[in-house]
Amino acid sequence: MSKSWMSALKQYFSMLNQLQIEGNVFEIEAYRKNDESLQKETGRILRRRETFQSRNARPVKCKTTIRQIQILSEDQEKVDIALQNHLWQLYHIRDCFLEQEDEQYRTITMREKDGRWYVDSDYIVGEEAQNSEEHPDAFRDNQEEIMPQSAEVVNKKGAYNRAMAKRYAELWWNQHNPHYPKFEVDCTNFVSQCVHEGGVTQEVTTQRNIGWWVKGKGNWSFSWSVAHSFMTYLLGANTKLPAKAELKTSADQLMIGDVICYDWDGSGRFQHNTIVVAKDPNGMPLVNAHTVNSRHRYWDYRDSHAWTEQTKYKFLHILV
Fold this sequence. Notes:
Layout: H1 2-19, H2 36-54, E1 57-74, E2 78-93, E3 96-113, E4 116-125, H3 162-171, H4 187-197, E5 214-215, E6 219-220, H5 222-225, H6 227-235, E7 245-248, E8 259-263, E9 272-279, E10 285-289, E11 293-298, E12 312-318
Antiparallel strand pairs: 1-2, 2-3, 3-4, 3-11, 5-6, 7-12, 8-9, 8-12, 9-10, 10-11
């Protein structure tokens, strides 16, 4: 029995891998239950192809590696699985070859019907979760004091070393630095680390809603780990950071080490942050990110399930 569903699972990922390069996107219907999640997946693949076309990019090769398969439950007609898959893609724009890497944690339910196994649901853990804030209490009216009154406010003059910020983003894009806290929704925590490791000094205060700081693995400000709070803090007139941010009107105006903020549903509340680590031959940003760990991902995220037609962006240039 296990061998049957495992064989179907491998065929499913082989098909997904091939669709990154070529093929009829609706071939996926032979492996998946035809429901809303399938429509979202086909839409995502089609958007990715449209983006490639607009960039004059041509996919060359894609490799999917499945890791850490865990059977959550299993019977004769149904199996629930958790797994990690690493997606490596090679493409070129003009004479330049580029790579993109993504690590996805998925929960998959497979069912058997008439002697054939198919995918009933396939959920990428964390991608849809980017629609939620890391801390539900980040915008409470009553902000509790969690550090002593004598806490130091740090405001030392320091330049932003973009090369160091990029180096850190490349080193830790798919893992967690044990010296910092770790969150289920980790995007802003990761970007804060990159900016800090690039030389920007923390502003430490006694309250979580003031400043930008982390203390060990247990204490941090909302601006350190909440996407919207981080954005508003960098743009705030009262920010005491030696490196503030200014808005740019388009992505191509950004530099390595700058930040892109994402409002998936157009509500005005930004839910995701990435850091620019490279530019493609068209001068457009490639970003690294956490939650769904990504390296050199094209900045617009149209290949994400979290993206919608209402998605809005803010482009933050960090001033040195």
